[in-house]
Design brief:
Shape: globular
Structural class: alpha+beta
CATH superfamily: Hypothetical protein, similar to alpha- acetolactate decarboxylase, domain 2
Helix content: 10-25%
Distance between the termini: 69 Å
Strand content: 35-45%
Number of domains: 1
Radius of gyration: 20 Å
Bound molecules: zinc ion
Number of helices: 7
Strand order of the largest sheet: 6-5-4-3-8-1-14
Oligomer: single chain
């Protein structure tokens, strides 16, 4: 009888240890709130606080309630690049209508000591990843000869479509600047759920500028890639989300580039 009792305790101990191991594996999850097509359809009401979002990752990107700027999460801090081009720290109580985050753990590192524009950088990254069929979190830090970004102004209801908003998007240019690019490369088959291929947001080293990346020229950067094999999509239970047509074939190129 005593033996059985001990066996039981060993079983409990084992389960707890296994639980810890499982938690480690769960860090390779891309957690996302809502879908890109919902954002394109003008669903800009914040659905989740940043306090909650931080439970699911320490690196990522997204936007704010009412589409009030570009969000970048880095090392667990959340930055808001507003339409005035300035960077504001985001409070935990603020909400996001669309975000994607993960716990960043670098699987591959590459030092790049040459000048590549955004397209060439994408081509290089495409060569060093083992497959196009999984998710990659990306962190590129160092010096850039040039960076061009955009942000979006806060919207009022009734919310316009994102394609309308970006027609008047403020753009920002940086020359010979140090900073970090943060974001993801997603498979094409996730079209409609998130942005296929590359989506990066920029923040300057002094945390005073940044935004959604439109163009860049690298100088000397360290490229880090986190292979991510799980996806969790949290869907809003709101009337707006329930009633939206989320099956449209959207032209993301216009909105994201
Ligand atoms: Zn963006």
């Amino acid at each position: 009888m005593l033996k059985i009792k001990y066996l039981f305790y060993i079983y409990i101990l084992f389960s707890l240890l296994l639980g810890c191991v499982t938690k480690e594996i769960d860090r390779d999850v891309l957690f996302q709130l809502s879908t890109i097509n919902a954002l394109l359809e003008g669903i800009y009401d914040g659905e989740m606080t940043f306090k909650e979002l931080k439970r699911h990752g320490d690196l990522g990107l997204g936007t704010f309630n009412a589409l009030d700027g570009e969000m970048l999460m880095l090392d667990g801090y959340i930055y808001q690049v507003k339409a005035d081009g300035k960077v504001y720290p985001a409070a935990d109580s603020m909400k996001t209508p669309f975000s994607a985050v993960t716990f960043y753990e670098e699987d591959k590192t590459l030092i790049l000591d040459s000048t590549l524009d955004y397209k060439s950088l994408e081509e290089l990254l495409d060569k060093i990843i083992p497959t196009e069929n999984i998710i990659y979190a990306i962190k590129i830090e160092g010096s850039f000869k040039y960076v061009r970004t955009r942000s979006v102004p806060a919207q009022e209801k009734p919310y316009p479509l994102l394609s309308e908003v970006v027609k008047n998007q403020p753009e920002f240019e940086f020359h010979n600047i140090k900073g970090e690019l943060v974001g993801f490369r997603l498979p094409d088959y996730l079209n409609g759920i998130n942005v296929p291929k590359y989506h990066l947001h920029f923040i300057t080293e002094n945390r005073k500028g940044g935004g959604h990346l439109l163009e860049c020229k690298t100088n000397k950067v360290k490229i880090g890639i986190d292979f991510t094999d799980q996806l969790f999509v949290y869907l809003p239970q709101t009337k707006e989300f329930f009633d939206a047509d989320l099956n449209k074939e959207e032209d993301l190129e216009k909105v994201e580039r």
